[in-house]
Design goal:
Layout: H1 10-21, E1 24-25, H2 26-36, H3 42-54, E2 58-59, E3 69-72
Antiparallel strand pairs: 1-3, 2-3
Length: 82
């Protein structure tokens, strides 16, 4: 019987990748996500990063004009300590 992978949402997979690999460039994250989501576009990635940044899950500082670093601040679903 073939293995069936549980379908996880894009944001969950992105956080899992960042937990495993640590900070990475947006291009590296895009490549890693494309392995699981072959139809992912740059627009989808930018929307995802914007939402995760608004939620306080990641920080996305610019390294150069066209390259950004994606840093995990906290896990998705984890309450922030204030």
């Amino acid at each position: 019987m073939p293995k069936v992978r549980e379908a996880l949402p894009l944001h969950t997979v992105a956080v899992q990748i960042l937990e495993k690999k640590g900070s990475m460039s947006d291009e590296d994250l895009f490549d890693a996500l494309r392995e699981r989501f072959p139809n992912l576009s740059k627009t989808n990635l930018n929307t995802l990063l914007f939402k995760l940044e608004i939620e306080g899950i990641v920080r996305v500082p610019s390294l150069t004009k066209s390259k950004r670093q994606v840093e995990l601040i906290r896990r998705h679903g984890q309450e922030s300590r204030r």
